[in-house]
Amino acid sequence: MTKGKPIISILEEGMREGMQIESADIPVEAKIRLLDALSATGLKRIHVGALVSPKWTPQMAKVDEVIEGFTPVDGVEYTVVVLNQKGAERRAGFGDKLTLPDPTLGRSRIHLCDVFVRRNINITQQAEIDALQNAVATAQEKGVTHAEISINAAWGSNWLGEFSEDERMRLLQMQHDAWTAVGIPVTRIHIGDPMSWNTPSAMRSMMRRVLATWPDVRDFHLHLHDARGSAMLSAYVAMQELDERHTLQVDTAIGGMGGCPYCGNGRATRMIPTEDFVHLLQSEGIESGVDLRKLIEAGALAEEVVGHELWSKVTAAGPRPTGADVYAMDMPFVETFEEAQHFRRGPSVYEGALSPWREPVQSPGRDEYEARLAAEKESTS
Amino acid sequence: MTKGKPIISILEEGMREGMQIESADIPVEAKIRLLDALSATGLKRIHVGALVSPKWTPQMAKVDEVIEGFTPVDGVEYTVVVLNQKGAERRAGFGDKLTLPDPTLGRSRIHLCDVFVRRNINITQQAEIDALQNAVATAQEKGVTHAEISINAAWGSNWLGEFSEDERMRLLQMQHDAWTAVGIPVTRIHIGDPMSWNTPSAMRSMMRRVLATWPDVRDFHLHLHDARGSAMLSAYVAMQELDERHTLQVDTAIGGMGGCPYCGNGRATRMIPTEDFVHLLQSEGIESGVDLRKLIEAGALAEEVVGHELWSKVTAAGPRPTGADVYAMDMPFVETFEEAQHFRRGPSVYEGALSPWREPVQSPGRDEYEARLAAEKESTS
């Protein structure tokens, strides 16, 4: 039996996760330009920032101006991070532009790392556990009809090392029990990895166990960081374990930027580059609804906005060229990153480069390729 | 039945594949320093350069001086690329330092892309096919006892688009037939991907078909480029398909550098960063024999030698810290790449950074962690 593919949904994190670790001096106007470019790509969910205190996150000091200034596109959900009641009130004021949380969905979350949660949001793991019953009761009073359970720092921590699958399961089970005890079905599971401890083998094992334990849960959400280069691999492995009954939301960021100052890896924390992930989905035959060309333009703009090299491979080299986009046979030597941008900027970028061929390169293989292209074009016109 | 894991062997390509796309002005002394650092990591196979004409590869103009100057380490195989008889003669002159090719192994190779092979080494695909019978006959006369068959530009080309699995299999079968017709068993298969067309799904399907078609072949070799960010993913998928009867050689490069000027992507072509691959193997429980700390030092040196940022994630952020290497709980904000290097350069790199905690962070989780560490230390001392 061939398994079908899960539905993959992308949450673009560049404006939030990325910008929070980039310079606080990036002008609002540049941020709006990037956000509008991202909106035009076909991405359906975009995190636009965090409504937090500017004291420790000066990068978000003018997030209100960004929200006021950008132009929303129909069909795109724009969301923000809020950490407390004050943030929720600020968010409510932007109800015309932002998608507010689904009031029928309850949420609970526990961190596996007591050190990280203290460093990051100044509470303890025990306080999260102690608050669980109350939070569920309050949600029930508000009439939620289903719930998401979440573990954060799930795979391990830069302060406490690796966590076991049993510990992940224990803290998920604790939440699952709390919701089901009051008759609210758990429909979603979120796993966060702020410190990049994901590994493909731990992901495979965990997904299998979760699917076996709670077969009714169909919606998954992964927030994986990439400080050790395995985030796309782990997301891929998760995709492989799921099937057509499931949805998987993967958080990615334009150019792969991301990180929080609390995790100990700073800008080196990174995320899966959205461009590379969309390109991967294409190669796996999974529809993302995203226009890769526009996404790459947004990736190039992101580098301009942050003022340094970012880490998408596809934006640096271009996608695998197909159809009429295959390269010119007599393209000269291409060596630098600038020259490699010919795929979007045209031949001017390599003008004057060395070219070792005495005669123009010809090939019957290319003749056949072009004849096939022409025939395809004719048959569809 | 649980499948065993294949034996993974790494060919370090930084000095060859990497240096050929970096500046021709890098001093010989710096290259020797990097090569000696790589030798000290536990890597068992290192490509040290290419004995080719300096006219079109000026980066290799002084490769003889590099070979003369480096200090070989016992048990490490040092190899070079040669493209013709002249190169083979130059190589023979370094027989004291370089590992010469196994004379009992025959080799054949066909490119799937006629345009690339013309651009790159100035011959045609048809010429490669026409030369096959003769090459096998000559090898037979020389007494080879087994053979490697190889396809290059296997997954696709920037000039001719994607190639089909049937075409890959046809050109492998053609070579397999030529060797077996004269009674020489094929024991190895090499697949090259100079233009980064590998995808995980094509890799999975291909490996399954190859294993089903030639179950006697136990040794595989993958040379994957990473211009589209899927090389480590594809190598991982190949590992998953193999078992304890197999060996898989994966070519990687320190810092992920690599590319040839002929492929159209230049420096953006890249390879799998050796550091990230070794870290991945560790997380999968596969022994590589490589000291990751020393490898990361070599990765940092590589950035110094080439004079710009390279692309290993693990060298940028450090490995997942374990044992006594977990981070200090009161580490201040870490934001820049420089600050993130605390894991190997110590706390001086983040001196003076913001720190938002009024009191030192304490956690019973950390107390337990340290008690466990101390107990382990005691029990092993």
From TrEMBL, chains A, B:
Q: GO biological process: what's one of them?
A: ketone body biosynthetic process
Top-level taxon of the source organism: Bacteria
For this protein, the record's PROSITE patterns field holds: PYR_CT
Q: Where is this region: Disordered?
A: 354-381
Enumerate the Gene3D superfamilies for this protein. Answer: Aldolase class I
The record's keywords, sorted A to Z, are: Lyase, Metal-binding
Q: Where is composition skewed (Basic and acidic residues) in this entry?
A: 365-381
Keyword Isomerase assigned to the entry: answer is: no
Which intervals hold domain Pyruvate carboxyltransferase? 8-296
Secretion signal span: none
| Name of a matching Pfam family | HMGL-like
* A GO term, aspect molecular function: metal ion binding
- Family under the similarity heading: Belongs to the HMG-CoA lyase family.
The protein depicted here goes by the name Citramalate synthase
Q: Which organism is it from?
A: Homoserinimonas hongtaonis
